């Protein structure tokens, strides 16, 4: 999932010590697959073992996501059809400096979701203006459940089962779609979806 306009000036964040396990492997920025690449329509397979290959993949995914910049990335977006997601909402907090002026800082919360499942989505919905690193520079309003219960495994193999809401719920559902070969534009009408794809093709041609 891409950053919206509020976060276009985001800098690559410093990862807090408790999350640095994701960064123990050498990191590399991987190419992000863009629509209409057929690989984005693949259904991703579960991770069977959290080994060095998976740790390296996750480290690379964080590096790639921050470089883009974005707030979420699925493994298939870097060509790996595995059920792995990384998310960091990179929220902003206003603080008061020593000089009395108010400034903003980024609060980092990098999270790893391995073999995630969405359970019990709410009837209530939210609409967010979504974008995607695999559909660059294109945005559209998408309606999704406002909250859901989610179950996943972290990088240490620990299982989590939590109620998730707000932007995290939206982002998780967006990234979960990738694991099923679904893009956010698939939630739009056929006309709007075709308009987005035409714009994307035009931008690629111009580039």
Short description:
With 207 residues, the chain is of the alpha+beta class.
Commentary on this structure:
The chain is an alpha+beta fold and 207 residues long. It has helices spanning 52-67, 166-179, 190-206; strands at 72-74, 84-87, 91-96, 102-107, 111-119, 125-132, 135-145, 147-153, 159-165. The strands form 3 sheets. A 5-stranded antiparallel beta sheet has the order 1-2-5-8-9, with helices on both faces. It has a two-stranded antiparallel sheet with strand order 3-4. Strand 3 (91-96) and strand 4 form a beta hairpin. The protein is globular. The model is unreliable at 4-24 (pLDDT under 50).
Topology:
Elements: H1 52-67, E1 72-74, E2 84-87, E3 91-96, E4 102-107, E5 111-119, E6 125-132, E7 135-145, E8 147-153, E9 159-165, H2 166-179, H3 190-206
Antiparallel strand pairs: 1-2, 2-5, 3-4, 5-8, 6-7, 8-9
């Amino acid at each position: 999932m891409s950053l919206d306009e509020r976060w276009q000036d985001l800098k690559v964040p410093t990862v807090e010590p408790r999350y640095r396990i994701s960064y123990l492997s050498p990191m590399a920025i991987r190419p992000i697959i863009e629509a209409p690449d057929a690989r984005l329509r693949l259904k991703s397979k579960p991770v069977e073992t959290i080994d060095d290959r998976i740790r390296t993949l996750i480290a690379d995914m964080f590096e790639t996501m921050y470089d883009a910049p974005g707030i979420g990335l699925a493994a298939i977006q870097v060509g790996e059809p595995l059920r792995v997601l990384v998310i960091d909402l990179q929220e902003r907090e206003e603080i008061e400096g020593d000089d009395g002026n108010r400034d903003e800082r980024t609060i980092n919360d990098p999270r790893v979701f391995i073999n995630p499942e969405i359970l019990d989505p709410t009837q209530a919905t939210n609409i967010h203006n979504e974008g995607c690193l695999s559909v660059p520079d294109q945005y559209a309003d998408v309606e999704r459940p406002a909250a859901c219960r989610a179950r996943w495994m972290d990088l240490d193999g620990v299982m989590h089962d939590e109620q998730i809401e707000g932007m995290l719920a939206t982002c998780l559902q967006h990234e979960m779609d990738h694991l099923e070969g679904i893009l956010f534009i698939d939630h739009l009408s056929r006309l709007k979806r075709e308009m987005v794809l035409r714009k994307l093709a035009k931008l690629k041609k111009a580039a």
